[in-house]
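Protein in question reproduced for absentees:

***
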Amino acid sequence: MELAERIVKGDRRAVARAITLIENDSPEKHALLKALHAHTGKAYLVGITGSPGAGKSTLTAQLIFLLRKLGLNVGVIAVDPTSPFTGGAILGDRVRMNDHALDPGVFIRSMGTRGSLGGLARTTKEAVRVLDAYGADVILIETVGVGQSELDIMNVADTTVVVMNPTAGDHIQTMKAGIMEIADVFDINKADLPGADKTEREINNMLDLLHDLEWRPPVVRTTSRNPKSFQSLWEACSSHRSHLLKSGRWETKRKKRRQDEILGIIEDRIHRSIRQWMVQNHSWQQILSEVDAGKLDPYQVADQVLEWYNTTVSHPK
């Protein structure tokens, strides 16, 4: 496929075109991803997540500077809130990371969540594969901002960085059951503000309660006033990567990611087939009316739909 060949050869315009095709769910998408598959699996994926206002974009920009000084090619997927009017990302890559927009060793793409509740766009994984095939050594994946249910990043990234502010100390206990448990590295950003010591102490106290940790997430501090502080963050990420490789967890995580991707594709195709059937089935509105009237219950209807799927789609005559 010509577009795939251009991506592998380092054509930036081809990368932009490919991600647009993916976001728009173009019929060409599957052939493209199939052609790129053999060229993926080399990039190191770092997820950057945390509450809105934690400084994730500033932190990402600083990491790009550092990685470029190390001679690494960098890809960035910045997942932003979706505009209710255009369906696109409200915030743009050049608005937030303008200093890197013209660097040939950096490719930045903003993607709207488009209704996804997991802090990531549905097409994030596919866009990551494009940047991987393009030759990015490190791909930074910045989420839209997290809540208790927005944990998708841990299923995409090799290393997940949870970004917090010094004022977050009082809220750590309430976060423990969710986002706090996915961190491979904790970063206290804006660490020049009051409260950094308390926040670090609270995080370590929480970690002390978790026994038999195969990997104890390090707690680092960063501040834009001291760009060198981001070196410690990258070193913490690199240490986690080394741990994954030495322990065998690297391949285990990637196998699980491949399995989840396959299951996701299967679920998406089944979902599309059933929705198409609902649209085309003239009796569907009548079925819904019977559910409203209590003549049918949702479980009966679900069984009927699955029976139709199994007999008509899975085992066509």
Observations:
- The chain has two domains: 41-247, 258-314.
